[in-house]
Amino acid sequence: MVLEDEDIQDILKLLDASGFDSMQLDAGRFRLVLRRSAEGEDGWTQESFFTTAAPETEAASAETERTAGREVEPSTEPGVVDVRASLASTFYRSPKPGAEPFVEVGSRVSEETTVCILEAMKLMNTLRAGVSGEVTEICVGNGEFVEQDAILMRVRTEAT
Length: 160
Hints:
Blueprint: H1 5-16, E1 22-26, E2 30-36, E3 44-50, H2 58-67, E4 80-84, E5 89-92, E6 108-109, E7 114-120, E8 123-128, E9 133-138, E10 145-146, E11 151-157
Antiparallel strand pairs: 1-2, 2-3, 4-11, 5-7, 5-10, 6-9, 7-8, 9-11
């Protein structure tokens, strides 16, 4: 199955005629997320995520989940803090599609630095670092679903 631009335009026409503000289509090898643009703007924003092939074995599936941050082991390294999801949600690295991420590996953060958005039931929840230091790892891909308490990223704390 190939999803052409014309197909997306047809979907957008249907959405324009509806009262919905967003749509997510999961079809195995790809995921399409469409959202109404910010108030005062016409149109929709689009995010597309494609996979090259479906995992063929349980081991491959487990590896995919582990690399997506769902089964990341807690850090045992001294001075490294795991930033965790406060609720089961969809993890977003930036404030809107196409925008720069809140943080990257190497970014300096304070306790009040917003590091991501967690979307649950159409509510956008900002998550703050809760610690001062440097981001050393981002464990979850943008747009990935995470369980409550999942490790999202790691921060090396500043020496006191």
